[in-house]
User: Which sequence fits this backbone?
């Protein structure tokens, strides 16, 4: 009788153990954004230099202003806000053809988007899909696919992105993308130099491409591990400062 009771108690204990939490794509992205800065992004002024050009983003109470300040004799400033895109020269608005304005807008938005990843991954028109788990340099990652809707996804809405988010601390350590403009191609970025400024995380990247032009985007992490990528450039964000707003 005692033996039967002990067996019953053992079975009961095992059955009462909590099942491991299985995260979906949205939950993983939410955790990654929280780790990188979370709500601090929503009310902050961020200044940085990228390729010798100064940039500034201001977000406050649902409003945003993404700026690029060109070091030219006309004091050119490109500004993307909730209301659209404007180019100023000597503080005066410049009339631009729609196609030119759109290209400038995409350029400004792209720089801010990459510098402040993973914040933008919850923007409207972004679709997230968990592809599974993998290992890079002996560290476990969630492998995430990100695609965009045609409405709101920009001119490059057909581009496909992959993100590797650490299972341990939910940092975005690697990303890759396939683009179709021009001759198209695949890029793989390895983050380095992580630093946290006023609670917001920033990184730089080693930027690679496959040695084989027929490489498959979804196998790019394997190619990285087997030294089948070549280093193209370093993508460095300099002079970063953050001022949190109320």
Assistant:
């Amino acid at each position: 009788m005692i033996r039967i009771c002990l067996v019953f108690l053992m079975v009961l204990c095992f059955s009462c153990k909590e099942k491991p939490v299985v995260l979906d794509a949205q939950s993983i992205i939410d955790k990654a954004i929280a780790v990188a800065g979370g709500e601090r992004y929503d009310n902050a002024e961020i200044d940085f230099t990228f390729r010798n050009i100064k940039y500034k983003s201001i977000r406050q109470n649902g409003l945003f202003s993404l700026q690029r300040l060109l070091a030219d004799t006309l004091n050119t400033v490109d500004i993307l806000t909730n209301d659209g895109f404007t180019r100023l020269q000597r503080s005066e608005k410049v009339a631009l053809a729609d196609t030119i304005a759109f290209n400038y807008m995409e350029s400004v938005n792209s720089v801010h988007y990459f510098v402040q990843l993973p914040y933008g991954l919850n923007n409207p028109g972004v679709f997230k899909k968990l592809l599974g788990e993998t290992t890079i340099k002996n560290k476990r990652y969630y492998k995430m696919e990100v695609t965009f809707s045609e409405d709101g996804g920009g001119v490059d809405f057909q581009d496909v992105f992959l993100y590797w988010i650490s299972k341990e601390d939910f940092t975005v350590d690697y990303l890759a993308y396939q683009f179709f403009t021009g001759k198209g191609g695949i890029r793989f970025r390895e983050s380095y130099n992580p630093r946290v400024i006023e609670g917001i995380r920033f990184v730089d990247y080693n930027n690679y491409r496959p040695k084989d032009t027929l490489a498959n985007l979804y196998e790019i992490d394997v190619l990285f591990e087997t030294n089948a990528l070549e280093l193209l450039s370093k993508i460095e964000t300099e002079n970063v400062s953050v001022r949190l707003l109320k």
In short: The CA atoms of residues 101 and 213 lie 32 Å apart. The domain at 23-244 is CATH 2.50.20 (outer membrane lipoprotein receptor (LolB), chain A).
